[in-house]
Design a protein that fits this description.
By secondary structure, this protein is mainly alpha-helical. It contains 2 helices and no strands. 56% of the residues lie in helices and 0% in strands. The longest helix is centred in the middle third of the chain and has 44 residues.
Length: 124
């Protein structure tokens, strides 16, 4: 009988120690003050997703504008060259100009002294 009482008393003391330890451990947890993290994420998640797409769109539009300006400048530059209308110009990839093949379609060809307007029709 005495052993039963000791067993009951030791088990009660053990429960008290466990409860004390458990209550002390719970007091160390941070209190969130009614902030529900999943609700916050549900609110800001779509907004962040939309903002990321807007930033991506703005970056791509800026890149497109810069590239478009480069293409326009290249076209304007090539229109200043008179080589394509010259009698000695051929659209052959191996020899574009019979007189000056090293400077054809470059800045140096703008003031070519041998430029002559031609119709590019050769007799058969």
């Amino acid at each position: 009988m005495y052993s039963d009482q000791l067993f009951k008393q030791s088990s009660i003391e053990e429960k008290n120690i466990n409860q004390t330890t458990l209550s002390e451990a719970r007091s160390d947890e941070p209190i969130l003050d009614d902030v529900n993290i999943p609700n916050t994420l549900m609110h800001w998640g779509p907004i962040g997703f939309i903002m990321a797409w807007i930033v991506l769109f703005l970056m791509l539009s800026k890149i497109w504008t810069v590239k478009k300006d480069e293409i326009v400048a290249a076209i304007q530059h090539s229109q200043q060259l008179r080589c394509r209308n010259c009698h000695f110009f051929s659209n052959n990839p191996y020899l574009k100009c019979a007189l000056y093949p090293s400077i054809v379609l470059t800045e140096q060809a703008v003031d070519c002294s041998d430029y002559r307007v031609g119709d590019h029709k050769f007799p058969h």
